[in-house]
């Protein structure tokens, strides 16, 4: 009986100690996460990709293809460089140095400049001469904490995302686990130099894209497994609605393809442990209070996936690497001239995959 009493006292002491640790050290204010949608049967077609410049890049998050330059590739890496690969050249060159570790989305401007989302600084413009201009670091009296992705409309307006009002790029996983919708879709007007909020309360606002007619703008909500669109033209102008929901992964960057379909990178933040932890606020608080445990939980997620989605929000096809054997944690996908190019925060290369090869292999699989 005495031993039982001692054991109970020890358990109570341990629980009290854990509760105190969590109360003092938990960095998040979590809410339950949406239940992850089911994933399709794997096809592992991304394992056929070619690795461009393997070993030369440090986590190339986004990839832009310059069609006017014959398919020159651009990416931004964690060492602060914008890097370029010219057509017919198998190596990357350091093109422009911006500094910092937070260079994310890149997109062209009609005047020949490049727009860059620096997660730490805001929306940047990099001129053809290399001059860097900060276009937006605040909006309506608040700091842009996590500039993520951008797209320029034909009238020069720039739509870009501010992923989180709570955490910066270095702690993006905290935002995913916390699951509070604090992201925003922003609009930069080059004529007035003013930035405004288009839509707020987004679940980790990420990739941004426009269709060919620019009738709406799409923003990805990574922690909600969906993309939302805001109508820019017509009777629905100003109205926000779901573009596509229940995606089999967390949508990151989104780009318009040459056929009018969109390509979306779907981060695979799934594992039995991760699904368990993110189901309840209490388990989130406990895990987030121990940095090493949070890192371990994050590391249990493996795989890569991209989806082609029609202009009406229907999935056309999904390509994946279910175990991350060739590529893991794909954050962007860009289509050009029959190939797709893949960026990732977990690689030292840009992936390239022939869609003709994909179609051939898919056609060879018995239905």
From TrEMBL:
<protein>
    <recommendedName>
        <fullName>Strictosidine synthase conserved region domain-containing protein</fullName>
    </recommendedName>
</protein>
<dbReference type="GO" id="GO:0005773">
    <property type="term" value="C:vacuole"/>
</dbReference>
<keyword id="KW-0732">Signal</keyword>
<feature type="signal peptide">
    <location>
        <begin position="1"/>
        <end position="25"/>
    </location>
</feature>
<comment type="similarity">
    <text>Belongs to the strictosidine synthase family.</text>
</comment>
<keyword id="KW-0325">Glycoprotein</keyword>
<dbReference type="GO" id="GO:0012505">
    <property type="term" value="C:endomembrane system"/>
</dbReference>
<feature type="domain" description="Strictosidine synthase conserved region">
    <location>
        <begin position="151"/>
        <end position="235"/>
    </location>
</feature>
<dbReference type="Pfam" id="PF20067">
    <property type="entry name" value="SSL_N"/>
</dbReference>
<dbReference type="Pfam" id="PF03088">
    <property type="entry name" value="Str_synth"/>
</dbReference>
<dbReference type="InterPro" id="IPR011042">
    <property type="entry name" value="6-blade_b-propeller_TolB-like"/>
</dbReference>
<dbReference type="InterPro" id="IPR018119">
    <property type="entry name" value="Strictosidine_synth_cons-reg"/>
</dbReference>
<dbReference type="GO" id="GO:0016787">
    <property type="term" value="F:hydrolase activity"/>
</dbReference>
<keyword id="KW-0926">Vacuole</keyword>
